[in-house]
Write a sequence for this structure.
């Protein structure tokens, strides 16, 4: 199963993907997480990527495609994976198609989580991420047991610079102009499925599972 989770920033792609990874033993491929990890490790690619990320801009396609290409070649991505946050432009989608075709593979389905614009702002500004393991929480919707401390690894939580209001507005604009056109691209290929992201986390998760059941 080769899945792509789509939706505007703040649709819950990261949290849903975390749970799908656990329950279905999928390999998670999140470009945002890979960039943040590379930055934490002070690698040149991560430092370069963070310049775009802090402004709420998309990282250049060539940098992004390259990090994904390398990731897809690892053994754990051979059978089942879930992509979260990539592709974000039609040109990235075409690059992904080429990469998969070379591996004699293709996407099984694209699941788009739909959310109201107003809800997005609320969700994103309250989001907190563990510095150590990258898990996501939310001050109101998914709080930690102990304030500011990750439930799983005990790491400190922080607010991503791109979750601050100005950056969020910018990311939404970019989503509408560059990423939304991808929906038509995948719809045309008959692999797009929609899930209502305005329900509770569990209801969204069940809706995604129902789609997956249909596919298998
Ligand atoms: P995310 O964790 O998916 O919200 O990604 C955080 C940030 O990383 C985004 O706002 C972009 O700046 C950058 N990023 C992640 N994935 C991509 C991508 N596919 N193309 C370009 N930039 C990306």
């Amino acid at each position: 199963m080769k899945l792509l989770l789509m939706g505007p920033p703040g649709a819950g792609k990261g949290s849903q993907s975390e749970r799908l990874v656990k329950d279905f033993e999928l390999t998670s491929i999140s470009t945002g997480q890979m960039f943040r990890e590379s930055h934490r490790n002070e690698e040149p690619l991560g430092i370069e990527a963070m310049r775009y990320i802090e402004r709420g801009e998309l990282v250049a396609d060539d940098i992004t495609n390259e990090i994904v290409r390398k990731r897809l070649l690892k053994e754990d991505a051979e059978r089942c994976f879930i992509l979260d946050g990539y592709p974000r432009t039609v040109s990235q989608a075409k690059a992904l198609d080429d990469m998969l075709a070379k591996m004699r593979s293709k996407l099984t389905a694209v699941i788009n989580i739909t959310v109201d614009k107003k809800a997005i702002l609320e969700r994103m500004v309250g989001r907190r991420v563990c510095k150590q393991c990258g898990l996501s929480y939310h001050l109101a919707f998914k709080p930690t047991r102990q304030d500011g401390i990750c439930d799983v690894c005990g790491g400190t939580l922080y607010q991503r610079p791109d979750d601050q209001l100005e950056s969020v507005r910018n990311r939404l604009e970019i989503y509408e102009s560059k990423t939304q056109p991808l929906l038509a691209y995948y719809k045309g290929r008959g692999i797009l499925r929609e899930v209502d992201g305005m329900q509770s986390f569990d209801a969204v998760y069940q809706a995604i599972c129902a789609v997956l059941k249909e596919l298998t």
